Amino acid sequence: MSQPDLTASPIVQQAMADLAERLGVDPAAIIVVRVEEVDWPDGSLGCPQPGMLYTQALVNGSFIQLEVEGRTYNYHSGGARPPFLCTSKNEVLPEDLPDSLRGDPNI
Fold first, then answer.
1. First vs last C-alpha separation in the chain
2. What's the whole-model pTM score?
3. Ramachandran class of 8: left when φ > 0, alpha when ψ lies in -120 to 50, beta otherwise
4. How far apart are CA 76 and CA 85, in angstroms?
5. Distance, CA of 91 to chain centre
6. Are 63 and 75 in contact (CB under 8 A)?
7. For the chain, how are helix, strand and coil distributed in percent, rounded to 5?
8. What is the mean pLDDT of residues 82-100?
9. Rounded CA separation 6/24 (Å)
10. In this structure, what are the phi and psi dihedrals at residue 65, rounded to the nearest 5 degrees?
11. Which band of pLDDT confidence, cut at 50, 70 and 90, is reported for residue 2?
12. Residue 4, SS3?
């Protein structure tokens, strides 16, 4: 059984393009570490910012972990929001969520 091409997903392409632009690197230099479908527990999409209030409802989305030169970058998405780089010190990772909120890894 072959592994799915994680870079084929449009949402992963968006995250890769954003990271390439931020870092000034060729998208080919970006490694897709993992992609996972999740139901974020609230509107912060797993990336809460200080002083913000969020809807308290499940939001279907994705977690995308990319790597460049040994450093990892986590992208979150959900609802109508495209993937964004999460820099919150209170970031929620898929493994922090109950199994019932985690979808198929490597979507």
1. 15
2. 0.90
3. alpha
4. 7
5. 11
6. yes
7. 25, 35, 40
8. 94
9. 22
10. -115, 125
11. very low
12. coil
Q: What is the mean pLDDT of the chain?
A: 91
Distance CA 26, CA 43 (A): 32
**Where do we find the tokens 């979150």?**
76
* Cα angle value 73/76/82 (rounded, 5°): 115
Token pair in block for residue 103? 């979808």
What pLDDT does residue 83 have?
A: 97
Tokens of 11: 């949402």
Which two tokens mark 2?
């072959």
Amino acid at 8: A
Contact between 84 and 62 (Cβ < 8 Å):
no
In the chain, where the domains are located: 10-87
Q: Which residue has the tokens 């797993």?
A: 46
Q: What angle do CA 54, 59, 64 make, to 5 degrees?
A: 105
Q: Which residues lie across from 79 on neighbouring strands?
A: none
